[in-house]
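Q: Sequence in, structure out?
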Amino acid sequence: MMNQKPIAIMLTIKEAVALVDGVSENHIRQACKSGALRCVMAGKKYLINQESLLDFLTPKTDETSV
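A: Exactly. Output:
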């Protein structure tokens, strides 16, 4: 039996905005352009990995502070 790799769910900017409340298309687009959000270009469209989007939008905590 072969090990199956999970299939990445890729979203357009509009799909990403629809998935998350309170985030604008412009915010996601600027994050893609700046490299803050990992994405790929498919023609003129940005495709964003859903897991990367959720990681990007999750507040980062400083593990060393108590």
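The chain is about 40% helix and 15% strand.
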